[in-house]
Write a structure and sequence with these properties.
alpha+beta; Aminopeptidase; 8 strands; 29% helix
């Protein structure tokens, strides 16, 4: 299944689908509506925008080791979130990254996207998922804790934490 219909805690209805090679412009536009802090937290850099090559790495993928999910507001069709899952070579562990449109924060979208990605990771047979977070990204770390993730140190960088969850 490559299409999901989800309702958030705020009642927002989302249509989520796997990104395709035709989504470069959609994702490029979406990332222009992410706050500077969210861009910094998502990409762990001070870049002011997401470049064409980064977008291409989200849309031109193998769909086996990596996947990008795009969430659309069912009411107006606008993109409200993008989530990525990248599996390791052994297909045992996945790294998760989620971005939410600045105008749609605090509506439960991040929670639902993380739940979807975790379910998809488990369906792929991954044993765990993780996310590398800036220690300053309090909202994401708290959301992940509330979803049963554990928070640990990130080797070699005290400004980051490694948030992980074992999958059943």
């Amino acid at each position: 299944m490559n299409d999901w219909h989800i309702a958030t805690r705020s009642g927002l209805k989302l249509n989520v689908r796997v990104a395709t090679q035709d989504d470069d412009a959609v994702l490029s536009d979406f990332f222009h509506h992410i706050s500077a802090d969210d861009l910094r937290f998502r990409f762990l850099s001070s870049a002011k925008e997401v470049g064409a090559e980064q977008i291409r790495r989200m849309t031109h993928i193998d769909h086996k080791a990596n996947e990008t999910y795009v969430a659309f507001n069912e009411e107006d069709g606008g993109v409200v979130a993008v989530a990525a899952l990248a599996s390791d070579a052994a297909q045992e562990k996945g790294e998760v990254a989620i971005s939410v449109h600045a105008d749609h924060r605090n509506q439960g979208i991040g929670w639902e996207m993380l739940a979807l990605v975790a379910d998809q990771a488990a369906a792929r047979g991954l044993k765990s998922i993780e996310s590398i977070e800036s220690r300053d990204n309090y909202d994401a770390i708290e959301l992940e804790r509330n979803m049963g993730f554990s928070v640990g140190t990130f080797p070699g960088d005290s400004t980051l934490v490694l948030v992980s969850k074992q999958l059943s």
